[in-house]
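Service request form, structural biology core

Requester: graduate student, group of Dr. S.
Request type: structure prediction, single chain
Budget code: on file
Notes: please return the result as structure tokens.

Sequence provided:
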Amino acid sequence: MPDPLRLYVDAQFTSPYAMSVFVALHEKQLDFDLSPVDLGALEHRAAGFSQLSLTQRVPTLVHGNFSLSESSAITEYIDETFAQGTALYPAEPRARARARQLQAWLRSDLMPIRQERSTEVIFYGPASAPLSAVAHQSAKTLFQVAQALLPDDAENLFGEWSIADVDLALMLNRLVMNGDAVPQQLASYADRQWQRPSVQSWVALERPLR
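Core staff response, request fulfilled:
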């Protein structure tokens, strides 16, 4: 019997990082159990979970007797461990490095967008306040990076789909789904990525009321 897989995610199913790993597991056609963690109730600090998750964060993947947190580390582990299903990263070394660079950047930069357009605007409804000047500047940087990486009317960033497409589309959709101005090429790209069945499986999860 193969080692079982269990994915711990936030109980609201709004974490972009949990979504990335959830999508990766679906793309790899892997069976896994989904365990919600109530971050508001500090369940991630409780003894049971904190012993599983080195960083006490979601997502955390448990594979047999091995556990791993931090989403891009998890998606790399999944891709390198399981040959089945869709490849999560480009095969060509430079394209693969670029995909990982993009993932790291999306997780470490653009804080004004992440603060003013949390993923709740995607899963619960738009924010009422307009973007601040600093968030507009972050959006401009996001658009410049996305347009530099994305060929005109391309379906995906690197030819074949990769998990970096999901991460970029989600960042763009923080703005698109809130009604903020986004270049049409990028809005169309984000919408195409959002229709992917693995992404829609995450979107369709039943969320608790706010």
